[in-house]
Amino acid sequence: MTAEAPAFVAVAVVLLAASLGVVLTPNLFHAVLYLAVALVATGVVFLLLDAPFLFGVQLLLYAGGVVTIVVFAIMLTERLVGASIRQASRYLVNGALLSVAVFVGVVSFLVQMPASAPRPAWAADLTAAVGRALVGPFAVPFELLGVLLVIALLGALYFARTEG
Amino acid sequence: MPLGAYLTLAALVFAIGLFGVLTRRNAVGILLGIELMLNAVNINLVAFGRFHADLGGTIFSLFTISITVAEVAVGLAIVIVIFRVRRTIEADHLDLLRG
Fold first, then answer.
1. Chain A, 6-45: which have a CB under 8 Å from a chain B CB?
2. Nearest to A41 by CA among A71, A62, A65, A68
């Protein structure tokens, strides 16, 4: 438990720096690489929250899947354009003001929160508990999720197909 | 660390992602901002679940992660189609439906 605080601070710094990199760097490809760092840092936050299974899911699906897809899309559009995609931002002041306002709004709720109790005890084997829940009370949403993934796959194929 | 620390971290990441969505002109850049915001929500779900010793937070974030992946696949397919048709992925140039 004593190692948690410095680990949390380190992960938070990495996560916030990578997030700022995602939204501020002009090169879109670099933005995706920063996103990969931010997603892995989020996975480490899950580890700190005693959810190693989610850490694995995060690495496989987000850092592995999403980043690969986005890199593919950028490579494809870059090759079609024939130039490295630079991107400008607009409405910087307005965007910053609105983001800060949202953050202040959320934090004003957080400070009203009563001092939190220490962590309660937790299932020793989280992965087994998650597996049992997925085929128990959450079986129907789990099946629907499979249907959704098939639909998304077919939809993406339909959009991306070439004519003829 | 207390629950508030995790929630504050998630709120910061969410605000940064919102800033990206609002300021990026490129459609892929906007998608990256949405990814950050969804990620922040996942941190909230897992943190609440952990501090209430409830498995629901873990299960919910499992579902949101999967759905986000589907969303990114479809979103990027749409971006590629738009690029094929219009030769641009600048969100400002896509005003075909402007009244």
1. 8, 12, 15-16, 19-20, 22-23, 28, 31-32, 35, 38-39, 42, 45
2. A62
For B17, which of A19, A100, A107 is closest by C-beta distance?
A19
B37 and chain A: CB distance < 8 Å anywhere? no
Across chain B, how many H-helices and E-strands are there?
3, 0
Q: What whole-number distance in Å separates Cα of residue B29 and Cα of residue B20?
A: 7
Q: Which residues of chain A make contact with B27, given a CB cutoff of 8 A?
A: none
pTM (2 d.p.): 0.87
Give one DSSP letter per residue of B31-58, joined into a string.
Answer: HHHHHHHHHHHHHHHHHHHHHTT-THHH
Q: Which residues have C-beta within 8 Å of that of residue A119, sequence separation ≥ 6?
A: A50, B50, B51, B53
End-to-end CA distance of chain B: 52
Distance in angstroms (rounded) separating the CA atoms of residues A83 and A80: 8
Mean pLDDT by 10 residues, chain A (164 residues): 80 93 85 91 90 88 84 74 60 86 89 75 78 88 91 85 68
Interface of A with B in 110-149 (CB under 8 A): 110, 113, 115-117, 119-123, 126, 129-130, 133-134, 138, 141, 145, 148-149
ipTM of this complex prediction, to 2 decimal places: 0.88
Structural element, H or E, at residue A29: helix A28-48
